[in-house]
Design brief:
The protein is built from eight helices and two strands. It is mainly alpha-helical. Strands 1-2 form a two-stranded antiparallel ribbon. A hairpin with a 5-residue loop joins β1 and β2. α1 packs antiparallel against α2 and α5 packs across α6. The protein starts with 22 loop residues before the first strand and ends in a 5-residue tail after the last helix.
Amino acid sequence: MLASVRNPSAGVIGAALATVAAAGVIVLRQRSSVRYDSNINGEDDEIDDEPVLSVSETVEIFNELFLGMQNVVAKLSQQIAAIQSAGQKIPDAQVKQIMTQEFDRAGYALQKQTYEKFDVDEEDVKEAVEYYGSDKKLRAVINRFKSLYETVSGNATGPVVAVPDDFSPSDLVRAAETYFSAMTESMKEVVDDFKARGEGDFRNPAVAQRLHAKFAEVVNDAGDAALDNVGVPMGLFKAALEKYAKLPQVGTTLQMLQMKQTQELMALGVPM
């Protein structure tokens, strides 16, 4: 998994930036799309019976959904970037529309496939999310999925954050360097841990899936914590990315940080 940020001017719309404040529930729309309801706020609903799914199974379902959709977004982003590199300019609004429509289409198919794999339906998953709503791992993976959708669509579900006048593009670049460095170090620790357990064959699909699931579990927390340490809340970081993404010095830096991260992980034997 490449922990990436959205840069519309370069056609780079990647994986989830970070967790958002409220967890969300993904359920099927009636017209073959995906809906996000932010109705889980850490409060336990009064549910009499335990759900069909265990908390670990629920987390696994959302991990599969997140990783599958992340792969869809990455491939489509590469296709858009290739088109733009060939000289065909795609307006940002059209890029967002294409990405959102494909996210909905692929999300519907992937959700159906995943539910069939676990022999559950939409109601089973919704009940499990409500029942285990306070579980830290479940909230984290749902937040990652929700953040991925926000990154693709540009539709934020949290409060709007204004970028102060004294927060410059240079401040954003420094924050991005801190953010990527922390996430990359976190990913390296995961790789080292897998190797220490004898699971260093990352070309093995089963091992790769577990590795990426662990990446998804830890890297955003590491990035959040690093930003907090330098006094840049995630909401401000995301808002500044939206404001300054089209500036050449910002877009170039983000691409270089992504490339550096990829190279460091590949040097550890992780296919990218």
